[in-house]
Amino acid sequence: MDLGIAGRKALVCAASKGLGRACAAQLAAEGVEVTIVARTEGPLAETAEALRKDHGVSVTPVAADITTPEGRAAALAACPEPDILINNAGGPPPGDFRDWNRDHWISALDANMLTPIALIQATVDGMIERRFGRIVNITSSAVKAPIDILGLSNGARAGLTGFVAGVARKTVQYNVTINNLLPGPFDTDRLHSNIRTVAEKSGRHVEDVRNARMADNPAGRFGHPAEFGAACAFLCSAQAGYITGQNLLLDGGAFPGTL
Questions:
Q1: What is the CA angle 96-195-100, rounded to 5?
Q2: pTM score, two decimals?
Q3: Residue 191 pLDDT
C-alpha cells in the first residue's frame, strides 16, 4: 500500500534508537523527509546516516534534549512546519512510589506529558492551515494496564492520554489527527533495563526473567521495533484521516480486556 505521504516532513523525537528510530525508519521508507532528535550526538548521527543510505531521503539530526524549552526550540528550528509529529521521550525510572518526591514527579510530567503537549501546541495550527497533520504520541501499555514499578510513567502518560482525548476531536475536521501508540514489551534497551531491575530485586538471573516475560505473553515473544514502526507509519498515512483520539495497543495480546 502506498501510504500517500512521500515528500511530507516529519519531526521524530527520541529517534536515535528503539521505537523512535523504528518510526523514523518506516517514515523514511515511505519517502518522508525526517528530522530526528535525541540527546546523544554520536548515535544520532549514525542513525541519520543509516536512514539516508537505506532510504535515500533527507534526514536532519538535532542533538538536543526535547524535554527542555531549548531542545524543543532547536528541533522546531530544524523542522518548523512538520506534517507529521512523533512525540516520544524516555520513560522515567522504575521504583517504589515511597521513594519519589516532587522533583521526580515534575521530571516525569515534563518528559512524558508536558513536552508532547508543548510540541502539539507549536505545530498543530500549521497543520490545520495546510489541511494535513498526523500526530502520534508513543506512550505505554501501562496506560491501560498500570505496572506497579512504573508509577511515574503510569501517571504522566495517563495525563497526556486525557489531554489528547479532547483535542483530537477538535482537529480532525481539518484532516489533523492525534493518536497514541501504546507499546507493550518490545525488544528495546528500555525493556532490557526493566528486566535487569526486576532480576536484581528478585535475586533471579536476567535470562530467567526475560524468558518468563516472553512465556507470559500470548505471542510467546517480545515485539520487534519494526512492527511498531509500521503501525506508526500507517497512523501517519493519508488513509488514516478517520482515525483520531485512539489508543492503539501493541502488546502481543497481553492486555486481557475487550476495550
A1: 15
A2: 0.94
A3: 87
